[in-house]
Amino acid sequence: MDHRKKALLLGDYTHPDWHPLQGVDAEISRIFHDTMTVQCSENRNMLLQENITGFDVCISYMDDWKGKVSPQQTAGLLSYVSNGGGLVIIHNGISLQNRYELKQMIGAKFLHHPAYAQLEFNVTAESHPVTEGITGFTMEEEAYQFEFGSFAETKVLLEYQSEEGPKPAVWAHRYGVGRIVYLMPGHHVPSFAHETYRKLLLQAGKWAARYV
């Protein structure tokens, strides 16, 4: 019997705007292999309450910049997280922000990004389970920038250095009795080959799914 927890990975195979799930799905499945099974889908109806409740954590890699999830799908995800589900959002998965209710839950919205570049990342909260054992690292990435809402009690765990100074790269908070983590890196398949990032993503998933 498989005692691993269950993760739902949502992304786009057929019509991604910029970030296809192909390849990324295999990397994420390998990262979580020992702790969670990963079911991959582009069907937004997996967010409906009757479908999502069977999972311990939902991972958003949705490339949904032009569309919106439906009110019913939004309600399903909000209910899922507030009642104890985990939500891990990777890079472009923040496109859930097209629904204002989900933007409030995530705690910030994407604004823009400069050109893909080598970035330096520094840990700002060493004691958090997501960043435990993580030290500063560098990797090439698409440097998303955000605007935070004043309504979310979120904790920035990792920053990257930009020309304007440090910018948030990873944050986490609770929503109801659920847990949310956002990770800015994850632009394409090579991002997931970085050993430190793989560890960071694994720990984010384990915290959101209540392993720790």
TrEMBL record:
Pfam families: ThuA. Residues 34-208 form the ThuA-like domain. InterPro entries: Class_I_gatase-like (IPR029062), ThuA-like (IPR029010). Keywords: Glutamine amidotransferase. This is Type 1 glutamine amidotransferase.
